[in-house]
Amino acid sequence: MLGDKNGILAHKPAALTKKRLRWLILLSSFPLFGMVAAFGIAPDTSVEGPPVEDIVLSLELPEITPILPVNMTFWRQESIQSGDTIAALLSRLGVNSQDSVSFLRDARDVKAIHQLVPGRIVHAETTARGELLLLRYFPGGSEQLVMEKHGGSFRIGNQAPRLETHIQMKTGVINSSLFAAVDAAGVPESVATQIVDILASDIDFHRDLRRGDRFTVVYDSLYGNGEPARPGRVLAVEFINQGTPHRGIYFQAENGESGYYAPDGKNLRKAFLRSPLEFSRISSGFSTARFHPILKTWRAHSGIDYVAPPGTRVKAAAEGTVVFAGWQGGYGNVVILQHHDQYSTVYGHLSSFTKGLRSGNRVGQGEIIGHVGATGMATGPHLHYEFRENGVQRDPLRLAMPSATPVAPRYVPVFYEYTRPLMARLDMLRGTSVSLLD
Which regions of the chain are under pLDDT 50? Predict the structure, then answer.
């Protein structure tokens, strides 16, 4: 066998023809290509990559304490919350205990600090170590409170804030009273008072109001340091009373004359106010026969009685001169004003007079002359108001009062140009649902 094998190994192959060589190369190539194909995409072999797993390692990092310059200061602010104390605010502002104690000691007699107004903001300048350098608080009005550190104590001072004017627009509906309506609409009391004054000649706010009456007012409001300071002047107002709209627009001419006018330039101010009180109710009207509650007899009541809380301000119904201010029998404390030649007005049962008021003084329309009381023959606090023409009492609620001077013809074009955007604001709010403004 070995010899056969050696013989085979030693045997030289016969010479290959070209045709046989070609076939041999072709046949030998199939296994090679098959292996390549099997290596690339073998049957039942997944082509997805190997699984990936996220591994999170916790690394211990050294604590880094920022190095702040000793003289670096910071401004902080905190909003005052209901029930807040200044001590709680200082704590939230990051003031250290030493300066908190010093501040509370030095501010113990500062009324504004102990009567914080919720919603207002307190600003404080502190150092990185919590040292309080300055505290600024604007409670409203015309000045802001500033307490600054000097040495180891705090000194109080007042600074006038930089005031900015914002335009406010409000609308409301009368459901029970004018008081409730303006309060529900968020209208400041001083603005409500202006509304009454502006339209007092056209609307009797004591007797004419009805459920469903509606008002719209545009007024400016002063802001200091971004916070409300105080309401300003009414710019335009509309009051729809029993379906009838009444509008008033503020206008100041180049000659300095100013006032409230109807859209056609008519002056809304009458020679006499319809009422000398801002808010009240009539308890007794003008009558030829009324049962007197004290004298217990029927007699004429030659004036109007307005019930109001003691101390309510009483206004002069028109420009005039004080002819009497003192005690006069059943009138008690009384002021009598003379207007022009034939008219005079009487204000009785006052609790007090405006300081400095005396005979001969000139007063302007709407100027405060005294306060409601119950002096003289009065069963309770009220104002007895009389309107006299040539010495004879007349019913002021039935008289047609003359109007003041309208816009001068030369200023009418300027008036229309100035009032157009204000009228547009009133028109815009007239169709606005009150609920949408809440």
Answer: 1-16, 21, 23-27, 29-42, 285-289, 291-292, 295, 298, 434-438
The whole-number pLDDT of residue 39 equals 40
In this predicted structure, what is the pLDDT of residue 262? Answer: 94
Other beta carbons less than 10 A from residue 84's beta carbon? 17
At residue 280, the pLDDT reads: 58
Which of 194, 198, 196 is CA-nearest to residue 208? 196
- Mark out the alpha helices in 93-207 (DSSP H runs): 97-106, 111-114, 178-184, 189-199
Quote the tokens at residue 24. Answer: 């041999």
Give me the pLDDT at residue 43, please.
Answer: 53
Distance CA 373, CA 380 (A): 8
What CA–CA distance (Å, rounded) separates 371 from 369? 7
Contact 266, 419 (CB under 8 A): no
Please tell me the predicted confidence (pLDDT) of residue 236. 95
Whose tokens are 């009368």? That residue is 174
Spatial distance between the Cα atoms of 222 and 141, rounded to a whole number of angstroms: 9
Q: What is the pTM of this model?
A: 0.53
CA atoms within 13 A on the CB side of 258: 8
Give the whole-angstrom CA distance, residue 219 versus residue 120.
22
User: Residue 237: its pLDDT value, please?
Assistant: 95
Which pLDDT value is given to residue 35?
43
Reference 268, options 238, 227, 226, 229; nearest CA is 238
Tokens of 253: 């001419």
List the one residue out of 208, 204, 215 whose CA is nearest residue 180: 215
Q: Domains of the chain by range and CATH? A: 73-159 (3.10.450.350), 164-269+433-437 (3.10.450.350), 281-394 (2.70.70.10)
In sequence order, what are the residues at sequence separation of 6 or more whose Cβ sits closer than 8 angstroms to the Cβ of residue 263? 247, 249, 419, 423
Q: Which amino acid is at 395?
A: D
Rg (CA), the chain: 45
Tokens 């004429």 — which residue? 300
C-alpha to C-alpha distances, 103 to 63, 156, 355, nearest whole angstrom: 34, 10, 39
Phi, psi of 273 (to 5 degrees): -70, 150
Query: Do the beta carbons of residue 207 and residue 307 sit within 8 Å?
Result: no
